[in-house]
TrEMBL record:
This is Transmembrane protein 135 N-terminal domain-containing protein. It is a multi-pass membrane protein. Residues 293-413 form the Transmembrane protein 135 N-terminal domain. Keywords: Membrane, Transmembrane, Transmembrane helix. InterPro entries: Tmem135 (IPR026749), TMEM135_N (IPR031926). Residues 1-40 are annotated as: Disordered. Residues 17-28 have a biased composition (Polar residues). Pfam families: TMEM135_C_rich. The chain crosses the membrane at residues 349-369. PANTHER family: TRANSMEMBRANE PROTEIN 135, TRANSMEMBRANE PROTEIN 135-RELATED. It comes from Pisum sativum. It is found in: Endomembrane system. Belongs to the TMEM135 family.
């Protein structure tokens, strides 16, 4: 697929020596002369700076600014909706939470600035390394590995998100994205095509979601400390159950005596329900939904879950629309906003069905087998992943990879805490290493295998980093 067209100001300029005569598409002038010599390498940094065209400096500055705007826009937009939801919350915060609204706003501003600097530095570093290596080593001679190396170096900018905080979830997610791109390259490769053929399975995204669901939802009930703090908070909100209820299910699944039946009764009394709990129960349905039947609980929970999901997905669709379709929004605002509303409604239905079916399937299995244990919880949390079929096909792999990244992190945290991976605790900033490796693969694919990207992602990358030169000026042109 040919690269998208762009203004001439977005294309890197090259001297005749660098392009070996690829000017104005003249194929005859591309043949090197017998007595031609490679361009001289500047001896000092000052000389190198003098020969750098102003377009290169412009590309670096603009890429940094655009990267900052993307990072700050996404993080700031999500933070803004979270703050608005906090202000609109009718129920007062719990007594143990003493964070004021002012502190929340300051924290949101700091996070917005931090992620803006992160992506701005990443974009500026990548473009700088790309141009620097190309200037000293030749753009065509270094093209096969230049983006790979520049992406790895730019990945170190992840440290700007916090020197102490680990960002394992983000690193693993980007690694999953890199793996998808690498697999697409492998599928079209003659050498690796057969090996990668299973990755073309039509419903592989749903299967990955089911696997991820089994680990994530089991951890949500049995071992929440294995989940990232932000994701744990997300699950606690959309799981729709009080901590006392989850503890009760955990006790019976682990085969331990109940430790908080009084707390569960007290919680239900606050909702106007007087529930009776048997300390010798084998099935925790009365703990999960009180005096409701399993079917009645599913219906009522689905409506509540849908209301909770709507505020989550509205910014997820609106913010990218403002960034990706910024020009089309002025020409056809009704069409784009309609797609935003439809996408929000559809994704909210997916999340609400996903959460509802988790409780439905666990109750169903508990009733069938007349018992509740850890394997039963794992089995009951596998089918909810089928709810991903509600989403658009283009979004399924994105969601399944997002959840798979968190499932992998949770799984390894569980086995590490169990003592099976004691050495893993000694690895410091492994997230930065994984992130750098992933960005190296992604940027290499961006420079060499652009057709493996979906158009919407490619448009964003082209806007931030600048459209690469035409094929005749890149690595695909071999010296003759």
């Amino acid at each position: 697929m040919p690269p998208p067209t762009a203004d001439s100001s977005d294309i890197r300029r090259y001297t005749p020596e660098e392009t070996n005569g690829f000017h104005n598409g003249n194929a005859e002038s591309s043949k090197p002369k017998a007595n031609s010599a490679p361009p001289p390498i500047p001896s000092t940094f000052r000389d190198a700076f003098i020969v750098v065209p102003p377009e290169i400096l412009r590309r670096i500055v603009f890429s940094s600014a655009k990267g900052f705007s993307v990072g700050a826009g996404i993080k700031g937009g999500l933070a803004l909706f979270a703050i608005l939801a906090r202000f609109a919350r009718k129920k007062p915060p719990r007594k143990e939470i003493v964070v004021t609204n002012g502190e929340v706003i300051v924290s949101a501003l700091k996070e917005t600035l931090r992620y803006g600097l992160f992506l701005g530095t990443f974009a500026g570093t990548f473009v700088s390394m790309d141009e620097f290596i190309g200037a000293f080593g030749g753009h065509r001679r270094t093209a096969r590995w230049r983006a790979l190396f520049a992406g790895a170096v730019a990945g170190q900018s992840m440290l700007l998100t916090g020197l102490e905080a680990q960002h394992t979830s983000l690193a693993i997610y980007i690694l999953m994205r890199a793996a998808v791109l690498a697999s697409r390259c492998g599928i079209k490769s003659k050498r690796f095509g057969r090996i990668c053929k299973p990755l073309t399975w039509k419903h592989g995204d749903i299967f990955l979601m089911c696997l991820s669901s089994s680990q994530i939802l089991s951890a949500y009930i049995l071992y929440q400390d294995s989940l990232p703090a932000s994701y744990k908070s997300f699950l606690n909100k959309h799981g729709g159950k009080d901590a006392a209820i989850l503890q009760g299910v955990k006790d019976i699944a682990s085969g331990k005596p109940f430790t908080n039946l009084h707390a569960i009764k007290k919680y239900y009394k606050t909702t106007g329900v007087d529930v009776k709990l048997d300390p010798n129960m084998k099935v925790p349905c009365s703990i999960v939904h009180g005096n409701q039947s399993c079917g009645g609980h599913v219906v009522s929970f689905l409506g509540q879950a849908y209301k909770r999901a709507l505020p989550v997905y509205f910014p997820v669709y609106l913010i990218p629309a403002l960034i990706v379709h910024r020009k089309g929004l002025l020409k056809r605002p009704f069409t784009i906003l309609t797609k935003v509303l439809i996408g929000t409604a559809r994704s909210s239905l997916f999340l609400s069905v996903y959460c509802t079916s988790a409780w439905m399937w666990t109750c169903f299995l508990f009733r069938i087998f007349k018992r509740c244990n850890i394997p039963m919880v794992a089995m009951g949390t596998f089918p909810p992943g089928l709810g991903l079929a509600i989403e658009k096909k283009s979004r399924r792999m994105e969601i399944s990879l997002y959840c798979l990244a968190r499932a992998i992190e949770s799984f390894f945290t569980c086995i590490a805490d169990a003592g099976y991976l004691p050495q893993s605790r000694r690895i410091k900033r492994a997230d930065v290493v994984v992130f750098s490796l992933s960005t190296a693969i992604i940027m290499h694919c961006y420079a060499q295998e652009r057709e493996v990207f979906r158009s919407k992602y490619l448009n964003v990358l082209d806007w931030v980093f600048g459209v690469p030169p035409p094929p005749c000026e890149t690595p695909r042109c071999k010296d003759t």
